[in-house]
Amino acid sequence: MPEVAPAPATLPVDTAPRKLRLPAFSREIGLAALTLLIILLFSILYPYTFKSAANFNAILRNLAFEGILAIGMMLMLVGGVFDLSVGAMASMIGVITGWLMKNAGWPVPLAIVTGLLVAAAGGFLNGFIVAKVRVNALITTLGTMGVFQGVALLIGGPGITFLPESFTRFGQAEVGGIQAPVLVMLALAIIAQYCLAHTRFFRQYYYIGSNPKAAHLSGISVERLQMLSFTIMGTIAGLAGIVYASRIATATSTVGVGAELQAITAVILGGASLTGGKGTIWGALIGVFFMALMKNVLIISRVSSEWQGIILGAVLVLAVAVDSIMNRKKA
Amino acid sequence: MSAPLLAMHDIRKRFGGVQALNGVNLEVRSGEVHALVGENGAGKSTLMHILAGVHQPDEGSISWDGKQHVVIANEHAAQRLGIAIVFQERSLFSSLSVAENIFAGRQPVSRWGAIDRRALRANSAALLRRVGLACDPGTPLSELSSAQQQMVEIAKALSLDAKLIIFDEPTAALTETETTALFSVIAQLKAADVAIIYISHRLEEIFKIGDCVTVLKDGTWQGTFAVAQITTDDLINRMVGRALSFARADGGARYGPVVLEVRNLTDLSLEGEVRTRLRGISFQARKGEVLALAGLCGAGRTELALAIFGARPRESGEILIDGQVVDIDSPADAIAAGIAYLPEDRKDAGLFLDMTIAQNVAAARLKDFGSWWFSDARGEAAAEEFRKQLRVTSHGVKQAVQTLSGGNQQKVVLAKWLLIQPTVLIVDEPTRGIDVGAKAEVHALLRQLARKGTAVIVISSELPEVLALADRILVMREGRITGEFKGEDATEEAIMRYASLHVPA
């Protein structure tokens, strides 16, 4: 017996899917378009200061650190959680790795691997507390943020300078005019994009983020996957700290202060939702690039730093508000 | 006989397409315990919500304490009149003290506007004595048992000077001793000339403490009777007994071997639950059989399904599939063993609302679509098959499920489980909230699945649905299986009797 429902005849079956597919990408596409518009505008307004290879290189170099964090943060938000401890984690792992190679005299590769293992362990701790002990992710990572930051200061004081040349030459290397940290970010992005978009395993995060209860009842092991995503996030944050220390030859204890909020902002701008189940790695990169570009054009147009914060904050709320209004219209 | 305190006459209320109340009458006198009975969905809650000021009736009149045509505009108005409800789900604040709960928002204040703690304590202590609860008013509510919390609710009702107290399934979570204590408090209230409306599924309680009983069925008034002059059979007949609205399935079904056997299953109570829900459940389901679990809300049917599906912890008991004991500790284990479970609340636990039909259908069997290069196309092709087969009305399989009607959403959840080709399919209230046409389709589908060899277990609170679908019916009451019928032998009356009465074993 056919169900009594709005007649499908009004919408031809073959055109509808294309029309319906669009909203899933709208935030990414909208932001990419806005980014291009800003580039175009400022290329005309400031042909010498803005439109130069050196300036673009600077933009890219500065976004690499937050870009690496944002890739991990996108994975977290797809699964419906977030991690506030990533900035502090990056600081702590940079300092631990620096201390091991400078003060303890460990070989550089061993120091790096140890640093990454500590990062993974720290991330796992977050995941365990959230998934098994069931403490809210905000509280858990707010707490561990304080812990990681404290450990960074205990070990490194203000920071560890003059790191060995065999370490810093990686971070300062360039391939085809692009700095190594940017390449690390891009490589990580390609791997993460492949995993999230194409592997069955990581696909499960979209289900968990969309409805954890239904995911559990569909046989997806929500707890295990959540612990894993925190572990991956911790490791990625550690990597960001190591790469940054390598680039500036110094492991600064406070390098990550505020980076977690920057990463979350970028990821949300790039299409993620705080309620989970949405977002792509490309979106995260566009978000990060957009933020860096905004900062750059504000500096070039001599907007004072106070106003930069106000404008970036307003852009975030505006972007999400527009999205929310559009979604309500659709429903 | 004195004039009634409350008289509701010809009350009608419609929600969207559903006529929840259709000409209901209710008269309650001071010092009387008036029982209200009816099946799930008969309209009891709606009627009480009207009394509490939550809903307004579309038609009908209410008179209260001699005043005609009273309008109960909101909860405050109900409170001012002296109507209080002791809710099924407690409406208390577990982190606050007993005294703060009793006087929530109405704490006595001193001249300076600060809360007068001494008066608060003294007033609370007096009320607690009246309900026979021996505890300090400063005790945090969370430290009390659920029976004691209920006494706090009653104390709160008394503090409001309630002339009418409504008890909504008050004994559902109580032990026998606690129930006895509650009944003595009700007797005292009665002696103090308070009117009481008592809603319960347990008919023997009504014969114990009720003076009158009003019966509702499908939103219509079936009459008000003096408890002394009515028999249990009479009452049950009036609660059920309707023309079959669904035609019964073709008889002569042939079943295969037993595919699911549950042996002596007892569950563990979860956090916040007073007691376990299941006590030593044993039953079998055969290949090709439609087995129904009937019973009232709270009988433990959903808990049983969840325990079999690995989503609720078990204390003891075994589950056998095809004669082999299987170890089920999670839904993933259950799915691997060939068990599927369609949950009661599809939006809450069954669907990924913002995801597409194809993604929803694939959810329980992602491994079919590629591990290292997940193929959306293959998932979409599989979903498209089901979309056609189940006649899901949509633009295609890439449409988000939140834009579908309830019936179509339910078909999507069904498709998710059909994809795993289950040996046992448990469906929990499969037709709740979907329209008549889709209902018939779901029924046909479930029967067809059984014919193809799946053991289908249907949990339903709608007796006509149970009678139309089931080859065999198990009736549950308070975590036990209390009765078993062959589908063709069962009647609504018989099921109702086993679902709501203590039957001597």
Strand share of the residues of chain A? under 5%
Largest sheet features of chain A: 2 strands, antiparallel
Fraction of residues of chain B in helices? 25-40%
Amount of helix of chain A: over 70%
Q: How are the strands ordered across the major sheet of chain A?
A: 1-4
Number of helices of chain A: 13
**Shape assignment of chain A:** globular
**Secondary structural class of chain A:** mainly alpha
What is the annotated CATH architecture of the largest domain in chain B? 3-Layer(aba) Sandwich
Q: What is the number of strand segments of chain B?
A: 19
Task: Give the DSSP E fraction of chain B (strand runs of 2 or more residues).
Answer: 15-25%
> What is the CATH topology assignment of chain A?
ABC transporter involved in vitamin B12 uptake, BtuC
Outline the low-pLDDT stretches of chain A. Answer: 1-25
Please give the CATH class of chain A. Mainly Alpha
Radius of gyration of chain B, in Å, reads 25 Å
